[in-house]
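Contributing new records

If you add data, match the layout below exactly. Sequence lines come first and carry their own label; structure lines follow with theirs. Keep one chain per record. Anything else will be rejected by the validation script.
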Amino acid sequence: MKSEKFAAAQIIFNHQFLNFQFIYYLCAMKLIEKYFTKLTNEQYAQFEALNALYHEWNQKINVISRKDIDNLYEHHVLHSLAIGRFIGFKPGTHILDFGTGGGFPGVPLAILFPECDFKLIDGTGKKIRVAQEVCNAIGLKNCHPEHLRGEDEKGRYDFVVSRAVMPLPDLIKIVRKNISKEQHNAIPNGVICLKGGNLQGETQSFKKIVQTAELSSYFSEEWFKEKYCIYVPV
């Protein structure tokens, strides 16, 4: 009798959990659709697939804080896509994601801009493995993760993007060699970073050329207050 009750309780729990997961998927995707209204069916499916993939891989290799994994779409996917609100990359643009970790901001941006080419690098091999497995699973052919330190990257790119990897002056010192002289976009080639907090110290040496966009001007969620998109032409 006890085993039958336990089995029945387990069935109810599983059913409720599946309902919760389904509701979570809907809410998460509505968050993306709220700001990006022209997604193709393929892009929608790719964004939707990120939830299960990152939850699965994060249990094996910690690329997102376990306390934060349930905020995946707001704190990581949508945050990455802020760069896509700052600039609409033209087809054929080459972008380097410096210090991508498990694939942010590169993977969401590669979904959003399928006609652009993204190389994702990180010095930690197990994190790059997660990014590669995610790209393989969703068929993201314009995204190329590689286990590589930024100092060893030799390629040329229109833009270098990152999420708070290191202080801005240090980052630009490393990637200056990687910025192409050929221009393809509405703004000059350079570095685009996602950062938070007081940035005066980091941007002081670039004060005549730096551009700062508040993410709260793109997204209305409370979490985006005091977070910024920083652009420095190089």
